[in-house]
From TrEMBL, chains A, B:
InterPro entries reported in the protein's UniProt record: ATPase_NBD, HTH_MarR-typ, ROK, WH-like_DNA-bd_sf, WH_DNA-bd_sf
Name by which UniProt lists this protein: ROK family transcriptional regulator
One Pfam family from the record: MarR_2
Span of domain HTH marR-type: 24-68
An annotated Gene Ontology molecular function: DNA-binding transcription factor activity
Family note: Belongs to the ROK (NagC/XylR) family.
Length: 368, 368
DNA sequence: GCTATTTGGTAAGGTGACCTAACTAGAACG
DNA sequence: CGTTCTAGTTAGGTCACCTTACCAAATAGC
């Protein structure tokens, strides 16, 4: 057995708490930090010195303050603290955000998709987006890259997992391998729905939380006890494989109903949305039944505090009320069912959060 | 914001690691502990001194050792380290184990059930069992009581939750209240299936793990990332409320098929078992379909490494193979499906583990 | 303008939990 | 009987935190 806790974890949690506090408040003095976090003034001074030496924070000029006594030194995010890159790879192409360590997006980069199934074009687009991002870098080192993939991802190997009938077969590439010669920063890879859940959870703040994505595919992102649930094989949330009304899977039944996917590589979201817009009662009934099955299953298994519906179909306004009613009829103590608020940007927001968290953690543990 | 990590957490994790190591090895010297845990010899000596002063450990006489040099002082669990009480309350009555802090069961106490729905008799039996346990206490203080209830339990208030159609309506009591005047030790309460999962997880060792109970009711215990999932309202694992093949719940459909429960307070387990023993094809088909629906749902939602089937019906040998086949047909990367090994004793084992964990943690944080 | 007050920050010294290195204690081997 | 091996202690150091006391600088009010 190894040493359980090195003493340095104390310093690291202190540094992290103070860094987050500075970023959250934009500009603070050490005295304010001490008051806000409960650390003593000497401890705050030491920590801020470490963070400043490491380039993560920087002192600003004196600040107009309405207060009475001596004006303190204000600190803010260092100009060369570095940046992270969040990349989204899906059927709509490749999109990336370059963000500073406060999470502020500085540059956007996009490439259109290749043809369906064209893996080569996708790889080229991914490399082109990252090359473009590296060509106009924000100040400081690139500290992490997080890639959102519209396919399941293995939790430890970070390999993309091939499932039969995936709506995104061209996305069966390993972003870490594709980008290995372009970036030296660590490349994190996760599923787009997981990352969307991460982003939406940040806004909702619930300790147990499920995000149901309904679009070209069906997906679920789960947060329990402040941790993302990825599953033993990276297949947590693959709710297309939920048992349906018959002996088969939910996805197969949706496909048989003319929705969703089974062996069709992709699903016509615009057609589904049009049917909903036109108040097609059959389309509504099928979708409500499917979403209710998903929400009911998640509720019975993990009993989350909040379930958010996301994705182009999931956020359609006509869905929410009937799903709520159906779930309430099924479950004795149903979760709050709401709409996601971040829309199609949720995966990029989540990837940014993932990259940031990793980048800041790594930068702090690497401090003297 | 409060202090993130007090320095004492280091000491507490050290003490805990060493205590667990001593208990796991029965008898050890400090030198062996240092080698096994990676702590330095002075640190081990200090920690062992704290644990010995607190009564949790005690030095034994010299030990026959095949080794060459000086014989060290061996340490073992202190004779008056105290004990914990695990209590199970269900339709079969009230059962309790008094165990020492190594988890060794010292005494057993049992009371038969009252009539179905007879809450008064159940409360009397619970008090009688605890009184009996307190009358023949093992040495040392009673440090914790854990109660396994055959009903859902709220994760924070520890109140038992009333669900319509519960097979155990008389069990709608608060053990903490019932025992308040009998014991001063903390009374922990949890659901029997959760505790069974805790116990079985201990034997299996998987990081993500689901325990499916099939007996008088349907239940699920979930372990993800080394943590028990209780749900926002204590209703995680209430898989009777899973969507069934039709618009209703799985439990309602089982009831309609002559199995399970809906508004009948209890289910005739012996009749179901007899049907399975007699190779009744209809009974087998209905049960396999239901269990497959449960395992498939859990797999699609959280993707556990292992799923154990437990409970009198769940452990029936004819179920395993067809369920495995059906799950494999449904899921792209199914969990290992096995039988639980602890049988009806699983909840008591789990309650013991819960009580032990709490007791040792509390004893160590209370140390000088 | 001068002083009191208020606020920011540093210096000095202490504590707790860990470490390494060097020692003493005691048993067995040859 | 000395050598060698193992157990455990002592001494001294480091690190991350703390409190207390002080100095520094700015405004408020006279």
């Amino acid at each position: 057995m190894e040493r359980a806790l090195p003493q340095s974890v104390l310093r690291e949690t202190t540094d992290r708490a103070l860094f987050d506090e500075v970023v959250g408040r934009e500009r603070v003095t050490r005295a304010e930090l001490a008051a806000a976090t409960g650390f003593s003034k000497p401890t705050v001074s030491e920590s801020v010195r470490r963070l400043t030496d490491g380039g993560l924070l920087a002192a600003t000029g004196p600040q107009e303050t309405g207060r009475r006594g001596r004006v303190g030194t204000f600190y803010e995010l260092g100009a060369t603290a570095g940046w992270v890159l969040a990349v989204e790879v899906d059927q709509s192409g490749v999109h990336a955000w370059a963000a500073d360590l406060a999470g502020r997006v500085r540059h956007r980069h996009d490439r259109p998709p290749g043809g369906a199934g064209d893996t080569r074009a996708l790889v080229d687009a991914l490399r082109a987006v990252v090359t473009s991002a590296l060509a106009t870098p924000p100040a400081g080192p690139l500290r992490a890259v997080a890639v959102s993939m519209a396919n399941p991802v293995h939790p430890t190997t970070h390999e993309v997992i091939a499932l039969s009938g995936t709506p995104f077969p061209e996305g069966l590439v390993s972003p870490a391998d594709v980008l290995a010669d372009l970036v030296t920063a660590p490349v994190l890879v996760d599923n787009d729905v997981n990352l969307a859940a991460l982003a939406e959870q940040g806004s909702v703040g619930a300790a147990s939380f499920a995000y149901v994505y309904v679009g070209a595919g069906l997906g679920l992102g789960l947060y329990l006890g402040d941790r993302l649930v990825r599953g033993a094989h990276g297949l947590a949330g693959e709710i297309g494989y939920l048992p349906g009304a018959g002996p088969g899977t939910l996805a197969a039944e949706l496909a048989a109903d003319g929705f969703g996917r089974s062996d069709a590589p992709s699903n016509d979201v615009t057609a589904v949305l049009k049917a909903l817009d036109d108040d097609d009662p059959r389309a509504l009934a099928v979708l409500v039944a499917a979403v209710t099955r998903v929400v009911g299953s998640v509720t019975a298994v993990v009993d989350p505090e909040v379930v958010l519906l996301g994705g182009p179909v999931g956020t359609h306004p006509t869905l929410l009320a009937p799903v709520r009613d159906a779930v309430a009829a099924l479950s004795p103590s149903p979760a709050r069912v709401e709409h996601g608020t971040l829309g199609v940007l949720a995966p990029l927001h989540g990837a940014t959060r993932l990259a940031l968290d990793h980048a800041v953690r790594a930068a702090i543990t690497g401090l003297p």
